[in-house]
Amino acid sequence: MSIQQTDVLYTAVATAENGRDGRVATEDGRLDVVVNPPKEMGGSGEGTNPEQLFAAGYSACFQGALGVVARLEKADISGSTVTAKVGIGKNDDGFGIIVEISARIPNVDAETARALLEKAHQVCPYSKATRGNISVTLV
Question: 77 CB contacts (<8 Å, ≥6 apart)?
Fold first, then answer.
């Protein structure tokens, strides 16, 4: 199911200059960062890289989805954190990414935490966008 243009609540706009070795900035100026490939990929490691930006966005989005699910389930997720680990490497088509999502949810047992993660993975927009395209592991 896709959304229609009239359903869009917010649109972020970012422009990159010189790809992985340059700069990326949002239209509103709130984000303006130097991007460079990590040393592991032959770059300088200065600045940030697209994988870090993707990990930041995915972890924030997933934490929001976890909050939605927790409210519906009446689960206490106060003090929780979500970490997204994004890896990039070579595959049959050139390069691909993998993601590991881990969460620390101190106020629920392990079984409840796992159930909340699975449900959040079903509603998180980043998870929906990547489903079937990249490997995402929940920890």
Answer: 66, 67, 70, 105, 107, 108, 116
Distance CA 113, CA 105 (A): 7
Task: Give residue 59's pLDDT band: very low, low, confident or very high (50, 70, 90).
Answer: very high
Nearest to 68 by CA among 82, 49, 89: 82
What's CA 6's distance to the chain center, in Å?
A: 25
- Does residue 37 carry a pLDDT above 70? yes
Looking only at the bridges linking them, the beta strands covering 32-35 and 81-91 are unpaired
DSSP letters, 70-131, are HHHHT---TT-EEEEEEEEEEETTEEEEEEEEEEE-TTS-HHHHHHHHHHHHHH-HHHHHHT
The pLDDT score that the predictor gives to residue 93 is: 85
The widest CA-to-CA distance across the chain, in whole angstroms, is 47
What type of residue sits at position 41? M
Report the distance separating Cα 44 and Cα 29, nearest Å.
Answer: 25
- H/E segment holding residue 14: strand 14-17
